[in-house]
From TrEMBL:
Domain CoA-binding: 14-111
Upper taxonomic lineage: Bacteria, Pseudomonadati, Pseudomonadota, Alphaproteobacteria, Hyphomicrobiales
Source organism of this protein record: Sinorhizobium kostiense
Record protein name field: CoA-binding protein
Length: 142
């Protein structure tokens, strides 16, 4: 996949087929982009599971926070990444160690690592980087 430009149909299909999202780097702080994007995704009907080891035992938008992806008991369709680009390779390794792989890894704005993306794609996972579903959803779906 060319990660410099995504066809609209590729992004729209991901957004339409995704039901459950693990949001890595979720923040309880209303001023943080992850907080606002999580609220948007919940309003659009997605099931969103916040992942943040520093917030375990709390909730974000009334959703219980888990420490890591392996703590999620249900299948997830997408991992939405609000971490630095440097964290993406280790996160891809964590994802590939899961018993059930997600269909998509979505790196938020500025989150891009082509080598990590290639590793995930080799395992059959679709990858989107340097994009925000809260921007793409209104543009492509309405």
């Amino acid at each position: 996949m060319n990660h410099d430009a995504y066809p609209d149909h590729y992004l729209a299909e991901i957004l339409r087929e995704t039901k459950t999202i693990a949001l890595v780097g979720a923040s309880p702080k209303p001023e943080r982009p992850s907080h606002r994007v999580m609220a948007f995704l919940l309003r659009k009907g997605y099931r969103v599971i916040p992942v943040n080891p520093g917030q375990v035992g709390r909730t974000i938008h009334d959703q219980p926070v888990v420490a890591r992806l392996a703590d999620i008991a249900e299948p997830i369709d997408m991992v939405d990444v609000f971490r630095s680009p440097a964290a993406l390779p280790a996160l891809v390794d964590e994802i590939l160690a899961l018993p059930r792989l997600p269909k998509v890894i979505w790196g938020q704005l500025s989150v891009r690592d082509d080598k990590a993306a290639a590793k995930a794609e080799a395992a059959g996972i679709k990858v989107v980087m340097d994009r925000c579903p809260a921007i793409e959803y209104p543009r492509l779906i309405g």
